[in-house]
Amino acid sequence: MRINRQIRVSPVRLIGPDGDQLGIIPTNEALERAEGQGLDLVEVSPNSRPPVCRILDYGKLKYELSKKDKIAKKKQHSVQLKEMRYRPKIDEHDFQFKTRHVREFLELGSKVRVFVMFRGREMAHKEFGRKVLDRVLEQLKDIASVESHPKQEGRTMAMVIGPNAEHIKKLKDGKLEKSDS
């Protein structure tokens, strides 16, 4: 937003501090009126012809805009992307432990990037990694849905899963408790 002397276009459509239109007048005259009232001349709509300017307190405007931004930011819900790393030769207990954590992440509404890391000769048997990812999906089919299917990226095979639609609905309704799952 341009204010006061930054406004170079003349003439401008002027709006008074109480919202009434004062007409199309030269910029210098509009600036004198604003200064006479102890307020600022603020360009509200620069793309219209002639540009629309308003007489108001610029500091107060900035304060109100920052307040609105803070409120909007508070109401915003950002989805976190958690990660869980598996190995192709993972032990049963480790698999159950990690999968339980993935379930907890999904219950809280986060998306999870599940990936299998390959080392050395394990790259020759990518099907073992695929089996691990399929097994994770099988264990979590009641709560999860696939957002991106497993794909090989260098030495990792990754997929992204997120809470399924009915679980998200339960989360939004606030009906979901820890004992439901």
Question: What does the secondary structure layout of this molecule look like, with pairings?
Answer:
Elements: E1 12-15, E2 21-25, H1 27-36, E3 40-45, E4 52-56, H2 58-75, E5 81-86, H3 92-107, E6 111-117, H4 126-139, E7 144-153, E8 156-163, H5 165-173
Parallel strand pairs: 1-4, 5-6
Antiparallel strand pairs: 1-2, 3-4, 6-8, 7-8
Describe this entry's structure for a reader.
By secondary structure, the chain is α/β, with parallel strands linked by helices. It has two domains: 4-58, Ubiquitin-like (UB roll); 81-180, Translation initiation factor 3 (IF-3), C-terminal domain (Translation Initiation Factor IF3, 2-Layer Sandwich), CATH 3.30.110. Helix content is 37%, strand content 28%. The protein is built from five helices and eight strands. The strands form two sheets. Strands 2-1-4-3 form a four-stranded mixed β-sheet. Strand 3 (40-45) and strand 4 form a beta hairpin. The radius of gyration is 29 Å and the shape is elongated. The model has no long low-confidence stretch (mean pLDDT 86).
Report a brief summary of the structure.
The strands form two sheets. The protein has a four-stranded mixed beta sheet. Strands 5-6-8-7 form a four-stranded mixed beta sheet.
